[in-house]
Each structure stands twice: as C-alpha cells, then as structure tokens.
Automatic annotation (TrEMBL):
GO BP: any one term: tetrahydrofolate biosynthetic process
Bias (Polar residues) ranges: 620-630
UniProt KW keywords: Folate biosynthesis, Glutamine amidotransferase, Transferase
Pfam family, one: Chorismate_bind
Protein name per the record: aminodeoxychorismate synthase
Glutamine amidotransferase domain boundaries: 10-248
The family this protein is said to belong to: In the C-terminal section; belongs to the anthranilate synthase component I family.
EC number: 2.6.1.85
GO molecular function: 4-amino-4-deoxychorismate synthase activity
Length: 930
C-alpha cells in the first residue's frame, strides 16, 4: 500500500533563517513543507461563518497537514503582529488540534500560551554556540520526550529574550531545591509546561543564567525548541530531535484516529502559500506574455541574432588594466571596468582571488537600461543618442506587464537576456576560450533596489528629492577580458553582421592596442597565442603601474576639498540604539553604516562629462558656517586642477588593490571601488552559485602583521557570531531558489581569515546548486520553444540587498536601519549595492560595493570658491560680511560609506573604530592630494 508523503505547514514569521528550517524538515523527514506567512489574510472558505480572529479559516487549512511548525522571527511573542497566526494554533479546539513544533519565537509563543513570561537576557546570545543540556533518557519517547536517545550536542542560539517559567519564590532557577534533579519537574504554577532542555550561561559577574531550551505541553501535542536546529553550526546529532518530534506527531495522530484531508487546499489558500524553491519557474517564464507579443520599443530588438568572435593576445608584463582602458577608450563618456587589481599579489595556487579583469568597450554605443524604484520605470537608451530625451524609450512596469505574479524589473531583464543567450558550444573553438565573460549585462545597482525586493519602502524617497536610477545596466557587445594568471587579453565582440565585419573591428582594435605607446614601453609581445598557454604566467609580480594619462588643463588655481566625516559621538549613539533593538528581540544583528561627504571643485574632464548629463542639475547652497565644524577637514591643494575621477581610480587601486575593484561611469553615476567582497558568482554551465559573506575585520598594523596574529584576534565569539549570522542568512536566500536538501545549499568554507592589502577579513563560502537543464541549441536561441530555466539572475534577484550589509532578519533589520541611519545622507545609494555582470552564457560575478567612493552628476553644491577660501578660509560664513556670488563655485559631492555589524557583544567604541578603519582606505585618495 502506498504511503502518502508527510505534509507539514510552516508558519513563517519573516525570519532570515526560515528556508533553512524548511529545507531541514524536507530533508530529514522526507516531507512536503508548505510555507504560509504569519500575517496571511486567510479567506472565508464558505464552510463556516468567518470569525474575527481567523480561527475557523485556520482550522480548515490545518486539516490538510500532519503537523505545523511555528518558526522563528523578530520581535516579541507578546506582540500580536509579531506572532500572527501562531497564537491561533495553540487555541484550536480539541476536535481540530494537531501536533505543533515551535522554534525560537514559536517556542516563546507556546510558553506564553501556557502561562509563562518572556524577559530580556542580561546579554543577547545571537550566533552563540552552546551545549544543550537535555533530559536525554530520563523519560521515554512515548511520554513525549523528543530528546530520548539523543547524545549531548552543541547548537546555535539566536535570541535576546528568554522564556521564564520560574515562580517569584524560585528566583531565576526555574525550580526549588537541587537544580540537577528539579530542572525536569513541571513548575507547580505552570502545570502544562514540561521542561526538556536547558542552557546554563555563566556570566562575567559570576551569575549563572539558566535558560529554557525545550518544552513539551503536558496535555496537548505541542513541543518547543529555543535553539535553532537548522543553523550550520548546530551539530547534526541534534537533527534526531526533529525526527523524534515527527515520530511522536505521527503516533499522536494515529492514536487519536486523526487523518489529514487528502484533497488539495482550496485555490484561494494555495495562493497564500509557497514551497521551496520559491521560484519554481524562471523569471523569464513569468515574463513570456510580454516577450511573445509586440515589443514595447524598437530598442527591445537591439543586438538579436549575434555570434561571438574574438582574438587573444599575450600581455606584456608591465601592461595594467588602466593602460588598456586609456589605449582603447580615450575620450569616451561612459565606462565599465571590473578590475582585479590584487591579482598579482594574490596568486597563491588554487586560491586565486580575482583572476580576471573585464573592460567593457564602446559603452557609449551600447543599449543601456535604467530602472527607478519609486516610479517603477525602466528606461531603455541606445548609446550615441543625445541625453535630452531623444532616442530613449520609457516603460512603465505597471502599464506594460500583464501577467500573473509579481511585476518586477527582474522579469524584464530575464526576458531580455533569454532572447540573447548564447549556446555554450558557440564561440571560437580554436582559441579554447574558458574565461567567464563573453558579453552581456554589466552594471551596478543601489542598496535601495534591494529594499524593493523585500518590500521595504525607502523612507528618504518619499519626498521625490531626485530621480536617479537604482539599476544601471549596459548590454555590452564589445569587451576585453584580461586573464592575470595566464597573462593574456581576449578582445571579443558579439556581432549580428558576420565574421567579416566582426573581423574588421577586431583587427582595428588589436592595431590600436599594440601600436599604443604603453604596449611598446617594455617587453615585447607575442601575438601568436591560440589558447591556454599554461606556461605563460606573469613573471613580474612587482611590475610598476604605468603613469596615468593627464588631460589637458585650461586653468590653474588652488582647489579646495572639504571632508565631512561622521560625528564620532553620534555614531556611538547609533550603535547603542542598535543594541537596544537587539536586546528587545527586534533583530539579531544590525549592519550599521554612515557616510563621509567630500566636496571639491568639479574636475575638468568630469565637469565636461556632467554638462552633457541626462540628469537635472540641482544646486544646493551650502549653509553658512558648515564648512569648518569639528567633524570636517578643510584641505587646500596646490595643483593645476582637481584630480579627475579616473585619477582617483588610479590612486585607489595603487593604494588598496582589491580583487573586485571597479571604475564605472554609467547612468549619471561615477563609482570608484576597491571592494574585497564577492557577493555572488554563478556558472551557466554547471548551475553552481557561490557567495562569500565577509564579516570580521582587523586592521593591519605592527601589532597585527601576520595571518596567524589576525586569526587569534578574529576567532573569538563576537567576530565568529557576526559571520555565522550572515552565513545562515545567505543559506536561507539560496534555498529560496535552489530548493531543499543538503546538496542544494552547502558551506565548503566557514569562518576563514584572509589577508588583503590593508586589513584581514573573516570570510565564509556558501554554495547553491541550481536545477540543471539542457543547453539551448543554436537553432533555438531567441525562439519561443527555448527552455525557460532558472538562472543566476533569479539568484541575484532573490539575494539583494546583500545580507552582509543588512543584518538579520533582513527585512526587519532594513526597516530599523532606515530610522537609525538618519541624517542628510541617510540614503545609502550605490554603497551597499552590487557591481558585476551576467554574460550571454549565463555566467555571472557580482561584488558588494564597499571600500568605494561615488558621486552623481546631478548632485552639486554651491561652495566658497578656491580663491575666496584661500584668502579667508575660517571667516567665510561665520557672520559679518555677506559673501558675494563671485566668491562661490559649483562643487561636486563624493560619498564614502563605511560601517560594521552591531551585535549584543559590540562596544560603541569598537564599532566606531572599525568604521573609521574601513573608511581610511578610500578616504586616503583625497587626503593624499594635500
């Protein structure tokens, strides 16, 4: 006789670990797990009169399940909004009750229902790993002891509130008399609570805090666990507790003759629920109605039917990424340069960080896509068109998208990509090309784009202060890829015009590059290479950078740079505010950030570029007296002109070489980055996705000069907890696309310390496996019969904003941070966003925008002129004589973001010092100009 698959309902309280629990349940119990949000508005199914609390609707729903799991989440079990439907599960009538397991918040909700109380711990235990002291074999499994037969094990805790079942006369022990014997007794005043597990926390003051970890309801089939069984650091021995619970649940159902309804839930109910993977269909499949009808714009047909062509050259040892850009892209307006500037210093066997650098060529002529979250408007623009509105096509998502499901920018991007994807067998087979980028999407996103994906409205966008894009992508058809391990450069093009036309462009580009002064200035080049060249590793690891090209100057003047750094005391106050929320249970970890503003006269070439900007220029009059506060630096520079953004990029890559550096001018933004953190990498061929969350930083110094010294400092509970929380969050994000099970998401590296130019960082690696599909054939490219498969773009959409920049749980943390990071620059913008690519074969690599500086063309301030500032720098605006118009000039505004993860173990001083440590690298490019 066929045994039906067990079915479990999981009540999701918007935790960033929920999918890990669902995956654990599905894997360990071989069960189907349906996910229902705690705030789901259950419909009146017509079977009973609807009630105000939704209990009748819930009764109809749970009849389809063997058991319910009430998951973890932020907030308090005493707050109805935080527990939602959970509280109704405990009060189901005797005729409709079913087995329930509460985890963390769900556990606390059960204890509250049984008459216990919840209090604050003296110090939160988020990310702490502790020995679970459980009842073991002192009670049999048949009596509801789900710990029976389970050896002692360690588990991860994520809570700052605890369930207190003590009576006033008991104090904090929870029971009178000898603790070793009495801890398993039911409290006299709470007869429904049967303790099953505890943790004893030894506090620095000498006080032992006894914390309840597991309970059983004495009369009903309800169990609860305070610890997190799904965490990567909870020992797998503890998974037997989950098996025991479900065995008891099924036994309880069997003994009482309870049979779940075998029919599928009502359609109106199914719409409220989801399973893992949550994206059972790809984004492009959801978008088929638009892709299969008349195009919304002629630009939508841009770059269809392209073939791949390339030439590979051996690089002279002295030629660097900036040299290639200057040789091939002089005079251009838009740039996308992904620069592995640390490649020469990090080539250590198999652990090569940032092996490739990618330069988009002729970006001015590409099709560019810009999306704005507030208006939900996508702008398509063909390169070379004027920026006054001519040649662009606006798409209002609300008007254009007509399909079931969420209407997002990602659906359009996926459909656009799917019509242009390149079969993996296409390309120059003779060249044996293996690099990751063949052409496709390149660009950047803001932090606020990620907020849209988790339904968090940016508070600072409500006043319509600007209309800057939150996503700027270019569809790159011409590019250069430098392989720093092989010492080669591949010039490549995606062309619909055939090999002759493509060959002409390749010949011209090879000639322009090899005839440039920088190419000939040093070792000779061998252009006969046809493939791997394993013996051609770069010989000069200490090769000097070529001096940058200097633009012509039209004026000579002193330039004045104003640097406004965060107020130290104010930042420490924000750390304390974060810790108050953590202590209240609202978050486990908050990634607090702040921004430094640098205003300076607009550089000669950047001013020229900005004058042609598509954006409106908003001038801000600087408020009198703001230039010389205690938190600002006033720097006068004796030089011919303000350093250009390209010079800043040159300086930053030399000062702080990083594996994921970048220089981007796109969508009215300029980004100069030396990011050390990979966000997401994925392979179109294998479906493997990899994320590298980075948490835990120590500055290099005479006291911390070696990796061993850094490991001693970083391998402590606070630093490891910061990283662990983000690892579990990233696992949750990946499960939403990759599905359930140990093979779907795994952690090959955990809490590893790595060395970078100026700091040591703790990183972990989390991998996910996308379902594999047959590769499209050449004849099927762009055709309707082509398979719609889940791709790395689905993963990117599901994982923003980066968890290492939010904290956990992600949604609640982002909501809190918007209020905490108050001030004139509270919008993070490009900082905390991502930069990268997704190529035509489905490969992608994205980095987190940190250790960076950025500016917008439309953000300028009216500041004292260089001449006026040099004459009387301290007196201007301090009262007295009014400044005249000729004593002011337009300044551009640069932003540098920095911050760190605040936990219960953080100190305000320590967090402030970490923020300034991270700020030092990018800020130095301005201070070095003095």
């Amino acid at each position: 006789m066929h045994t039906p698959q067990p079915r479990i309902l999981f009540l999701d309280a918007y935790d960033s670990f929920s999918n890990n629990i669902v995956s654990l349940l599905a894997d360990v119990l071989s069960a189907q797990v349906d996910i229902l949000p705690i705030d789901a508005a259950l419909p009146d199914l017509g079977h009973h009169q609807a009630t105000s609390n939704g209990q009748e609707q819930l009764r109809c729903l749970v009849a389809h399940y063997d058991a319910v799991v009430c998951g973890p989440g932020p907030g308090s079990p005493t707050c109805d909004q935080d527990v939602g439907l959970m509280k109704h599960v405990w009060t189901l009538s005797e005729d409709h009750v079913l087995p329930v397991l509460g985890i963390c918040l769900g556990f606390q909700s059960l204890v509250i229902h049984c008459g216990g109380v919840v209090r604050k711990l003296s110090t939160g235990l988020h990310g702490m790993i502790r020995d679970i002291d459980h009842v073991e074999n002192q009670r049999p499994l048949a009596e509801g002891n789900i710990f029976a037969g389970v050896p002692k094990f360690k588990a991860t805790l994520y809570h700052s509130l605890f369930a207190d079942i003590s009576s006033p006369e008991d104090g904090t022990s929870g029971a009178k008399g000898d603790w070793a014997r009495s801890r398993w007794n039911r409290p006299a005043h709470l007869p429904d609570i049967l303790p099953l597990a505890w943790v004893t926390e030894h506090r620095a003051s000498g006080f032992d805090e006894r914390i309840l970890m597991g309970v059983k309801h004495a009369r009903r089939p309800f169990w609860g666990l305070q610890y997190h069984p799904e965490s990567i650091c909870t020992e797998s021995t503890g998974h037997q507790v989950i098996r025991n619970w479900f065995a008891e649940a099924l036994r309880w159902n069997e003994e009482r003759g309870r049979r779940r309804t075998t029919a599928e839930p009502d359609v109106s109910l199914k719409k409220l629920m989801c399973n893992l993977p949550k994206k059972s269909e790809s984004l492009s499949r959801q978008f088929v109605p638009l892709a299969s009808t008349e195009s919304p714009s002629s630009l939508w047909e841009h770059s269809l039917g392209c073939k791949y062509y390339s030439r590979t050259l051996r690089l002279p040892n002295h030629v660097e990424v900036p040299d290639i850009v200057e040789s091939l892209q002089a005079g251009r307006r838009d740039f996308i340069v992904l620069d592995s500037a640390s490649a020469k210093t990090s080539r250590t066997g198999l652990d090569v960080k940032g092996r490739y650098s990618i330069i988009a060529l002729d970006v001015d002529e590409t099709l560019q896509l810009e999306y704005r979250t507030g208006s939900r408007r996508l702008t398509l623009r063909r390169g070379g068109e004027r920026r006054d509105g001519h040649g662009k096509s606006d798409i209002d998502l609300e008007q254009v998208l007509h399909f079931d499901g969420e209407h997002t920018i990602w659906n359009i991007l996926a459909a656009f990509w799917s019509k242009r994807q390149l079969p993996r067998e296409d390309g120059n087979r003779d060249n044996n090309i293996t690099h990751p980028f063949y052409g496709g999407f390149m660009g950047l996103t803001t932090y606020e784009l990620g907020l849209e994906g988790i339904d968090v409205e940016p508070l600072n966008r409500r006043d319509g202060a600007h209309d800057r894009p939150d996503l700027s992508f270019a569809w790159v058809t011409r590019s250069a890829v430098m392989d720093h391990m092989e010492g080669t450069i591949c010039l490549q093009t995606l062309s619909p015009d055939g090999p002759i036309v493509a060959g002409v462009w390749l010949d011209q580009t090879v000639e322009a590059l090899t005839s440039s002064p920088v190419w000939a200035d040093g070792l000779g080049a061998d252009f006969s290479i046809r493939g791997g060249g394993q013996d051609q590793l770069l010989a000069a690891a200490t090769a000097q950078l070529t001096p940058p090209l200097t633009p012509e100057t039209t004026r000579s003047a002193q330039t004045t740079t104003y640097i406004q750094i965060p107020d130290a005391d104010d930042y420490e106050d924000k750390v304390r505010e974060c810790q108050e929320h953590i202590a209240a249970g609202d978050s486990y970890e908050l990634c607090l950030t702040d921004q430094t503003l640098i205003t300076r006269p607009r550089s000669h070439d950047d001013a020229r570029l900005a004058s042609a900007s598509r954006h409106r220029h908003n001038s801000r009059q600087a408020q009198p007296g703001t230039w010389h506060s205690t938190q600002q630096k006033h720097v006068q520079q004796q030089q011919a002109t303000t350093e250009t953004s390209w010079s800043l990029y040159r300086a930053l890559r030399a000062r702080n070489p990083a594996p994921f550096g970048s220089y981007i001018r796109l969508g009215g933004a300029t980004l100069v980055s030396s990011s050390p953190e990979r966000f997401l990498e994925f392979s179109g061929a294998t479906g493997l996705c990899s994320m590298r969350p980075m948490k835990g930083t120590v500055k290099k110094s005479s006291a911390v000069a070696t990796l061993a010294q850094a490991e001693q400092i970083l391998h402590v509970p606070k630093e490891e907890a910061e990283n662990l929380m983000i690892v579990d969050l990233v696992r949750h994000d990946l499960h939403s696309v990759c599905g359930t099970g140990e093979t779907a998401v795994r952690v090959p590296q955990l809490l590893k310390v790595e060395e970078y130019a100026s700091v040591f960082q703790m990183i972990s690696v989390v991998e996910g496996q996308l379902p594999l599909h047959a590769s499209p054939s050449a004849s099927g490219v762009g055709k309707e019969q082509q398979q719609h498969r889940v791709t790395g773009l689905d993963v990117l959409a599901a994982t923003l904003p980066p968890g290492s920049m939010t904290g956990a749980p992600k949604k609640r943390s982002c909501e809190l941070l918007q209020h905490i990071e108050r001030g004139a620059s509270s919008e993070r913008s490009l900082y905390s966003g991502v930069v990268g690519y997704m190529d035509v074969r489905g490969n992608g690599d994205w980095s987190v925008t940190i250790r960076s500086l950025f500016r917008w063309d439309d953000e300028v301030v009216l500041a004292p002129s260089s001449t006026a500032a040099a004459t009387a720098p301290a007196a201007r605006g301090a009262g007295g004589e009014e400044e005249s118009e000729h004593e002011h000039e337009l300044h551009e505004v640069w932003h540098i973001g920095a911050g760190g993860a605040v936990t219960a173990l953080s100190t305000p001083l320590g967090e402030r010092e970490e923020m300034f440590t991270k700020l030092k690298g990018p800020l130095g490019v301005f201070e070095d100009q003095v």
